[in-house]
Amino acid sequence: MGIEIRDFRDGDRDAVLELSLRAWEPVHASLRRVLGGRIYDRMIPDWRESQRTEVGGALDDADTAVRVAVRDGAVAGFYAVVIRPKDDTGEVTLLAVHPDHQRAGVGEALTRHAVDWIRGQGMGMAVVETGGDEGHAPARRTYEKAGLTELPVSRYFQAL
C-alpha cells in the first residue's frame, strides 16, 4: 500500500504523540550517551514529557502546518512546518516516523512533501535541523535523499 500525506486531524493526536515517543526514544538514548548523564539530565530531565509538550504545542499552534503520513491505514509519521516570511524560509521543526514504518520511504516522502509545501507558500528556502550524533543518522540520510544540503555545526556543553 502507498503513502498518503494529508492534513493533521484532531483524531490523529494520540497516534502522533505516541509515534513521536517511539521514534525519538533511540535519539534520546544516543544523546544521553554522547552528553553523559549529568549534562543530559540537566538539559532534559524528562524527555518523554518534553517531547509530548513540544509535539502537542506544534499540533495546537495555528501558525504551524502539520501533515501526517498514512500507510497501511495507520498514521505512520508526521511533520510540522513554520513559515518565516522575513527570512524567505519554511522550517521543518518536527518530523518523525513510527518505528514500524521506518525504512519504507515515509520519512523521505514527508520531507519532500514539506519542501514542496514550503515552495508552494512562496518561500525561497527550506530549512531543517537535526543532530550530528548516531541517533540522528537516519534523519540526516533522509534529508540528504530528499535533496537538502547539510551545514555541519558543532555545539559544546560542560556540566558546571
Automatic annotation (TrEMBL):
Domain (N-acetyltransferase) ranges: 3-160
Keyword Transferase: yes
Keywords associated with the record: Transferase
InterPro entries for the chain: Acyl_CoA_acyltransferase, GNAT_dom, NAT_camello-type
Matches recorded under PROSITE patterns: GNAT (PS51186)
Transferase keyword on record: yes
PANTHER family for this protein: GNAT FAMILY N-ACETYLTRANSFERASE (PTHR13947), LD18367P (PTHR13947:SF37)
Protein name: GNAT family N-acetyltransferase
